[in-house]
Amino acid sequence: MKSSQPAPNPPPKLLDQMRARIRALHYSIRTEEAYTDWARRFILFHHKRHPIGMGAAEVEAFLSYLAVERKVSSSTQNQAKAALLFLYKQVLDVDLPWLDDITSAKPSQHLPTVLTPGEARALLHELSGTMWLVASLLYGTGMRLLEGLRLRVKDVEFERREIIIRDGKGGKDRVTVLPENILLPLKKQMEKARLLHDGDLEAGLGEVYLPDALAVKYPSSARAWGWQYVFPSPALSRDPRTGARRRHHIYEASVQRAIRTAASRAEIVKPVTPHVLRHSFATHLLQAGYDIRTVQELLGHKDVSTTMIYTHVLNKGGRGVISPLDM
Fold it and tell me: pTM higher than 0.90, yes or no?
């Protein structure tokens, strides 16, 4: 007589195990996407062999392929290595000493691209509406693009003229300046966001993504006005992890495209991205005579040596030296 018991569920696939482990450790969705993609590419590179049956030679071969044939940057190569370290140690529970011995690619030492004050004004002149406000916020505060787009209503202090940046790079909070010139436009942007939020609440929606376990600990906060994004997306979307229908912040690619187009119209020949506005913020503050420690705190750099890179691009010629031709 055949057993009526159901067949046991098959074990989850390797990449699903990796996603589950990443979520258990509260890594960001971007880290999850990047790490699982590198693991998938590593497996495909070795003709779908399971990583448990591979070792140092296969990892070295994959990283060498990225550097030599794909010509990826050192940071990209190191990200791939970090993903494979995570796969073996956190998912497969294999602590192999050779993983730590694999040499990391030496980081490139490039000076940041910085706009002159005139170029910054010309760039902003070619933008309008929400895109102008986002770009002005990045240039006026030194925020990274995603820090600006993830800004919550509760973290804008109009009276104190400051913005609190939560969970920035390295999981740190910091405070930066709120420029006087965007006070009124920012208030109008919040009024627009409030109308969207009120409409979502009337439709039985209105929840926003909350970090880590806050959604469980404070279930009503997801609908609270203070937790909403200052720059909400005009369209609702599905959370890739939970499937919940929410209003996320505007898509970063939209800002990147708008700034690239504005730079072209302004005839700026330098490659301009949103991050260039952060570099320009730091450099222009140093040019204005502000203390490098102050700039370090505003940018959220862990070490002042990171901030020191901007002293090499100050508008004083090569290292502040007067050429003998000009003497």
Answer: no
Distances (CA, A) of 249 to 102, 133, 266: 39, 14, 27
Report pLDDT for 249: 94
Rounded Cα distance, 326 and 265, in Å: 34
- DSSP structural state of residue 29: H
What residues are labeled active site? 144, 169, 275, 278, 301, 310
Helix or strand run (H / E) with residue 245? strand 245-246
Using an 8 Å Cβ cutoff, are 168 and 174 in contact? yes
Q: What angle do CA 161, 162, 167 make, to 5 degrees?
A: 165
- The tokens describing 166, both together, are 């939560």
For residue 182, give the nearest of 172, 192, 190, 173 by alpha carbon. 190
pLDDT digits (tens, 9 = 90+) for 232-283: 999 998 887 778 888 999 999 999 999 999 999 999 999 999 999 999 999 9
Instruction: Identify the three-state secondary structure at position 249.
Output: strand
